[in-house]
Amino acid sequence: MEVTSSLILIGAALLLISVFTSLVSLRFGTPLLLVFLAVGLLAGEDGPGGIVFNDAGAAFLIGNVALALILFESGFDTSFASYRLAAAPALTLATLGVFVTTGLIGVAAVYLLGIGWIPALLLGAVLSSTDAAAVFLLLRVGGITIRDRVRSTLEIESGSNDPMAIFMTIALVELAVGHLPGDAVGIGLRFVEHMGGGAALGVVGGGLIILVINRVRLDPGLYPVVSLALALFVFATTNVLGGSGFLAIYVAGLIAGNVRLRGGEVLRRFHSGLSWLGQIVMFVTMGLLATPSGFPAVAWQAVLLAVLLILVARPVAVWLCLAPFRFSAPEATFVAWVGLRGAVSILLALVPILYGLPEGQMLFNVAFITVLASLLVQGWTIGPVARWLGLVVPRRRGAVDRMQLELPGEIEQELVAYAVLDQSPVARGQRLPRWARPSLVIRDGQVVPFQRARQLQAGDRVYLFTDPRTVPLLDRLFAEPRDLDEDDRDFYGDLVLRPETTLGTLAELYGLPLLLKQADRHLADLFRQEFRDPEIGDRLHLGQVDLIAREVVNGAVTSIGLDLEPARANRHHVPLLPSPAELLRSLASLRSRISFRLWERRQRRPGAERR
Amino acid sequence: MIDLITPHSIIPNLRASSKKQALQELARRAAELLGQHERAIFDVLLERERLGTTGVGHGIAIPHGKLPNLDRVHGVFARLERPVDFDAIDDQPVDLIFLLLAPEQAGADHLKALARVSRLLRDASMCERLRGADSADAIYALLTHQETSNAA
User: What is the pLDDT of residues A387-424, one digit of tens each?
Assistant: First the structure.
């Protein structure tokens, strides 16, 4: 009894410490996950906590469950819309990218650590996947808005590359201990079985979750429990059947999360809470398990490896994978920079130890230091790097104070509550559209029917019933005004145009080139034609000006910016990761410059002789 | 700016109580300067505002349009005595207005002039000095000085 209680006490205390230090860390912008890891390290055997925890098996089990929960939630939270935007580049990164990173890290490890090829590639595989928890957290909690396409690519990549890295790690370990004959066809078949099985069972599992939640009448409190149990059931069944359980649970989450579920909001909160718990538990456990006194032996090699990973392996992989897609140089550079490694790498580093590989402990230490370095360097700098690369979407509106409540039954309506903020359009007399169905106002603690409330005042809270799709339109009316700054003009252009302006009018007014058959086209159509799914910040080149999507509501551009001097927006003369076309162009110009110099020198030579 | 404005095309303290009135006053002054119909100018400006506001934020507006029978791009600068609501993109009232009128066949010149004015008025310290200047000549000097120092 005594032992049980003290175990629970230790666990609860570590959780509490982690949660509360996270409050402090937000102030300083420290990556949260680093804090959790530090809590584990400090509590562990070499820290003041002095807890001796050396059970790699238990840590692996805990980590597996935690990772499964995190992946379920990241699938649950990813909309099909982001998939439509970014599936191709993200999945290329998650497959080919993982291969390339593994190979490059493997080569480096052979020379740096003086180990054989298989353990070196094993280390590469362990370090090859970006961490879903870290990427999600840093992109969302970081408080910066990055263009959808880039963010979705990073999020989908980080959620879907873990299964790949896990497969490669396990295959390489089995190769190392001789369980797996080094037969390419055999490995290939197993790969197909593993991934195909995982994806297929994930789809089935997702369907099962939807079916159970929407069809079976249970006590409302049980739905989150059922969803959790089903998710883990899908995960474990797939693993037992020889598929990738992690891929299955991610796919199941993705499918279930994109369907209207009974009590969807409650489920979302529940799983987001579980995902937090998973992250804390995973990082603290990994921190506890590590033995920092073993670090100095491999410290400089590991740090060098981290540098190579960040500056060479990841950028090369990203460059190769993104080459066929339309990513600008700053965007590709940012994707390369957000190659955060996290707890998954540490978790995978346990596999060699569990299989009893002689290099196991050393590989674990190297992986741990590399992850630490990645979290420190990349995690801490995501915001500044995004700003430096000009990828932060400036918020055009100020804050909105909004609450949404899903209504029971099958109707497509929500109860939305807005606080009326000082200086927002509604507070300054703007009328609410009729479709918003405002029903009541809470003013000074009193409930007032909307008709009797007359003009809305700052401090009121308005309740309205509306289609959830109209919420972005309402946000505009309830948002505080916000000062423009210089970056906004760079991002959104000098002037604004209405979406229904025709191309003909614009071309005539500003003397722009025009195809006659396009003269009657609306500018908004032009965006739809060019981007299919336009997002804020998309630019169309039109003669010497750029048109910019300033506002997008439900896939339609509703406000357009006109940039009179588009060259100004390209302030970044540091195309760290130029696209192949750009690279060719600059190589060509370099060649012509060099040949010009040579020609110049040749011209000068006879002159010098004459003198 | 030297080729866009003259000392006569500066209005240091325009009185207007609305966007419409401000545009009307500007059209009147431009009509006098260019010998054109006031109504025609006003209509052209309104037409442009219908495509989207020219209030670019920070109290600045750059209304513009095309007119037949102009020899080149002309500008009129006005400082309002009291800022007016201009439906600007940041919802802030406007007190500095740079009107641009381009000939029908201006082509790229129109855009170039617009870009120059927009760039000039992006400069926050320039706008502060324009707001603080005490006479039409001082404003003219500010607007044109920038240009000459850029050229140098």
Answer: 888 777 776 566 677 777 767 666 677 788 888 887 77
pLDDT at A470 (0 to 100): 75
Summarize pLDDT for A110-136 with one digit per residue, the tens.
Answer: 999 988 898 999 999 999 989 877 777
Nearest to A544 among B51, B108, B122 (CB): B108
The 10s digit of each residue's pLDDT in A579-589 is 666 677 777 77
Residue B2 at interface with chain A, using a CB cutoff of 8 Å: no
Average pLDDT, chain A: 83
Contacts 24+ apart (CB under 8 A), A313-317: A313/A100, A313/A101, A313/A104, A313/A105, A313/A108, A314/A101, A314/A339, A315/A576, A315/A577, A316/A100, A316/A104, A317/A93, A317/A96, A317/A97, A317/A98, A317/A100, A317/A101, A317/A104
State the nearest Cα–Cα gap between A611 and chain B, in angstroms.
37
Tell me what percent of the residues of chain A surpass a pLDDT of 70: 89
A190 touches chain B (CB under 8 A): no
3-state secondary structure of B149: helix
Find the closest chain B residue to A568 by CA distance: B119
Could you tell me which residues come within 8 angstroms of residue B125 by beta carbon, excluding any fewer than 6 positions away? none
Residue from A503, A564, A571 whose CB has the most chain B CBs within 10 Å, to mutate: A564
Query: Of B8, B64, B110, B145, which one is the catalytic site residue?
Result: B64
**Which residues in B lie closer than 8 A to residue A560 (C-beta atoms)?**
52
Which fold is adopted by the domain A2-51+86-186+267-388?
A: Na+/H+ antiporter like fold (1.20.1530)
Q: Is B87 on the interface with A (CB under 8 A)?
A: no
pTM for this structure? 0.72
Per-residue pLDDT tens digits for B13-55 = 888 888 899 999 899 988 888 888 888 899 999 989 998 889 8
Domain ranges of chain A: 2-51+86-186+267-388, 402-478, 486-570, 579-611
Beta carbons of B114 and A564 less than 8 Å apart: yes
Which CATH entry fits the domain spanning A486-570: 3.30.70.1070, 3.40.50.300, 1.10.3300.10, 3.30.465.10? 3.30.465.10
Place of tokens 């650590």: A113
Kindly state the percentage of chain A with pLDDT values over 90: 25
Interval B98-114: pLDDT, tens: 999 988 877 778 888 88
Q: Nearest by CB to A511, which of B62, B65, B108?
A: B108
- Smallest CA–CA distance, residue B21 to chain A, in Å, is 21
Could you tell me if B151 lies within 8 Å of chain A, comparing CB atoms?
Answer: no
Does B64 qualify as catalytic in the annotation? yes
The CATH superfamily holding the domain A402-478 is Regulator of K+ conductance, C-terminal domain (3.30.70.1450)
User: What is the rounded CA–CA span in Å between residue A503 and residue A562?
Assistant: 13
Assembly ipTM = 0.89
d(CA A285, CA A290): 9
Counting every residue written for chain B, the total comes to: 152
Q: Is A506 on the interface with B (CB under 8 A)?
A: yes
Q: Which of A65, A44, A49, A128 is nearest to A94 (CA)?
A: A128
Mind telling me how many Å the CA of B50 is from chain A's nearest CA?
8
| Range with top average pLDDT, A403-412, A434-443, A482-491, B21-30 | B21-30
In this complex, is the C-beta atom of A604 within 8 Å of any C-beta atom belonging to chain B?
no
Closest CA to A576 of A379, A289, A314: A314
